[in-house]
Amino acid sequence: MHHLCIVTTGGTIDKTYFDDKSAYEIGEPQIGKILEALGVAFGFDVLPAMRKDSLHLDDNDRDLLRRLIAAQPHRHVLVTHGTDTMVETARVLQSIEDKVIVLTGALNPARFQGSDAVFNIGCAVGAVQTLPDGVYIAMNGRIWNPLAVRKNREANRFEPT
Q: pTM for this one?
């Protein structure tokens, strides 16, 4: 992989504190800053598609993402996405051919100490470089088939269906 296309949608990975009541808002995409700080040995572009909590994504948003990703000239695509509806979006993206697409996110904002964001991004970058064409989810230290995984909201982790 010489170049990685990164599409951001918002989600917890990009959340910041908004006010004293601990409400959050979705800020600037964090992944570019993270990859630059790590000194990665590949080029990348960050395409901010939207800034939404994944619970607010609808079919029109997912169709927009599908069209945006399909139109990209690069084969390797990493998507940062909120975890609550990541599986639904991954399933929609499965109609895209000739690309390796890996969705990842965070259970805690990237700006917070102890966030899983950097770990998940690292797993996703490794996955997007080595897997065959298709759509995958990189969360909790594993690479998941979107047809065989679900988010367990009570345990705050991904697990097999």
A: 0.92
